[in-house]
Please model this.
Amino acid sequence: MRKNILFAGIIFICSYGLSAQNVINTDRPDQSDGTHIVEKNLIQLETGLQYSKFDEVTTGFDNVTLIRFGVTRHFEVRLLNQYSLANDSSKTSGFRPPTISFKNQLCVQKGLLPKITLVSYFRLPITISPAFKGDHLGYTFTFAGRHDLTPKMKIYSNLGINRDQESTDISYLATLEVNYNVTDRFSSFVEYFGNYAPQTSSSNGMDFGFIYAFKNNFAVDLAVGSPTMSLASNRFISFGISARLPR
Model:
């Protein structure tokens, strides 16, 4: 027990869907928000690295860290931090404005009605790095759904609205994911995700990946995909770890 506490503590300082009881349930590496709420009074850390190739000359690197805290059985608060680096003819890097997030379970699955959770993000108008200014309040409100088809297979879906922090433009998001529990500790998924904005062309992407829990409170994940459904010209790969501090 002491070794587990020390290990999780080191991860915390340094900084999906699995169905078995007490096995960690994460909101990464897919694009969909899940419906799971972190257990009351527990802290869960989810962090990962993503490499993106946007075209022949532009690449990107992101480190996203999400800290989740269970307030009640149906409500959690979250803090999201993101460091980004973009390489083209020049190099742009820095921390994006901090994001405060909340997650509230609205209902459980009843027949054809899926389990539904409201997930909200507020990107604060705070500039940490000049490359990523926080002139306006950005937000995202998402209804996240989960439907258990069998004990091993689940359907996740998201519908949401987003306000861009820089332009203040409004866009709409949607995801649809099939998640399969190969074992109690190993979960795989394939996912569609899209973004629809009146001001710009719509984007449609796909990704696939897996989550493996080495222990009930520690998991690793991997995802590969493309925001334009073209792995040859526009693609990303991400790797992450998640740890829940034991009781």
User: Anything to note?
Assistant: The radius of gyration is 18 Å. DSSP finds one helix and 13 strands in the chain. Residues 59 and 87 are 5 Å apart (CA to CA).
